[in-house]
Amino acid sequence: MRYLTVALAKGRLAELAMDIFISIGMDCSEMKEKTRKLIFTDEKNKMKFILVKASDVPTYVEYGAADIGIVGKDTILEEGRNLYEMVDLGFGKCRMCVCGPVDLKGRLDEIPELQAAATSPGIARRYFQDEKGQTIDIIKLNGSVELAPLVGLSDVIVDIVETGKTLKENGLDVLEPICGLSARLVVNKVSMKMERERIMNIVNSFRSITEEAQK
Predict the structure, then answer these.
(1) Phi, psi of 15 (to 5 degrees)
(2) How far apart are CA 18 and CA 8, in angstroms?
(3) Of 31, 36, 142, 158, which is the most buried if we count CB atoms within 10 A?
(4) 126, 22, 11: which is closest to 71 by C-alpha?
(5) Burial class (CB within 10 angstroms; exposed 0-12, middle 13-18, buried 19+) of 89
(6) Cα(195)–Cα(2) distance, integer angstroms
(7) Do 49 and 42 touch, CB atoms closer than 8 A?
(8) Tens digits of per-residue pLDDT, 139-192?
(9) In degrees, to the nearest 5, what angle opens at C-alpha 54 toward C-alphas 50 and 56?
């Protein structure tokens, strides 16, 4: 029996996913220890866990370096990889939104050459160009996007919103919601054919736990 490899996004998502794997009988004890290791093995269940950057999870899964991945929906949308999205895990909930100064609310369509700063430019482009049919100039940033409208770099930002507290502290607000986000379980398409029974056992266990937690 070969190992099934699971790619986990480093940080909070990995910790929450580990708790579910533990609850279904997987050994993640080594991962719970403070270590710089990136590969962890559960010999008994023939499982291998790898810790990678969130934006790389869909890549590892699409190319078959991982059979299964746990990653945020925003990353799946941004990366646009060819894989199966199997379970909405319900944690890490937030929204992707267009945000900016309050006086722009309801007026975005009136701005002829709208500029938006975004950490996920692909999502921003699809929303404005494909869904709204609006021309947009997108500026890619890697963090602190709230700063962009405050210093005149952009009119608005496209960013993940959890509580909205950071926005309010910087004089910004949600102008238009784009979509809801949460952690998802994804599967490699070839792996699904080759290891369907083992993978579906994990998928169904995750689905049951998620549904129970949401009751």
Answers:
(1) -65, -45
(2) 9
(3) 158
(4) 11
(5) buried
(6) 9
(7) yes
(8) 999 989 999 999 999 999 999 999 888 899 999 999 999 999 999 999 999 999
(9) 75
Strands 183-187 and 39-42: unpaired
pTM over 0.85: yes
pLDDT of res. 97: 97
14 in Cβ contact with 71 (< 8 Å): no
Cα separations (Å) of 33 from 26, 37, 151?
15, 10, 43
- Find tokens 């998928």 and name the residue: 203
Looking at this protein, which amino acid is placed at residue 12? Answer: R
Strand ranges (E), the chain = 4-9, 39-42, 47-52, 68-72, 84-88, 94-101, 114-118, 136-140, 156-161, 172-181, 183-187
Residues in the chain: 215
